[in-house]
Amino acid sequence: MLEFVPMPLIDDFLLKYNVGQVLLLAFVLSVVAAIPLGSRKVLSLNAITFGLLFVVVPSSLAPLHYKFLGIALLVVAPVLYVTARK
Q1: 38 Rama sector, left if φ>0, alpha if ψ -120 to 50, beta otherwise
Q2: Domain hosting residue 64, numbered range
Q3: CB neighbours (10 Å) of residue 64?
Q4: Does residue 27 sit within a domain?
Q5: What stretches of the chain show up as alpha helix (H) in DSSP?
Q6: Residue 61's pLDDT is what?
Q7: For all residues of the chain together, what is the average pLDDT?
């Protein structure tokens, strides 16, 4: 009996990408999902969360430039949070 197992297909697809690229895609998708809310505070909290994730991820899983992106997000996002009205 031949059975369809999707896990090897997903695994082969994900092996082409590193954790930094997956986190970047998740960050972009979450920003797009938060835009209809119309709240800069939600966007800045999202950026702070992903900034922490980019900084905490070990450098063996993601290249160094993702750490720099995380540091930039951790600098810019709190400023956006403080200046946001809602």
Answers
A1: left
A2: 16-83
A3: 9
A4: yes
A5: 7-14, 19-34, 40-56, 64-83
A6: 83
A7: 88
**What is the Cα–Cα distance from 70 to 48, expressed in whole angstroms?**
8
Residue with tokens 């009996």: 1
| pTM for the predicted model, two decimal places | 0.80
CB-based contact 40:84 (threshold 8 Å) = yes
Token pair 């797009």 in the structure block, residue: 32
- On whether residue 47 sits in a domain, the answer given is yes
Q: Which amino acid, one-letter code, is at 17?
A: Y
**Residue 5: inside a domain:** no
CA 56 centroid distance within chain: 12
Residue with tokens 């999707």: 6
HSE, CB side, 13 Å, CA atoms: give it for residue 34.
15
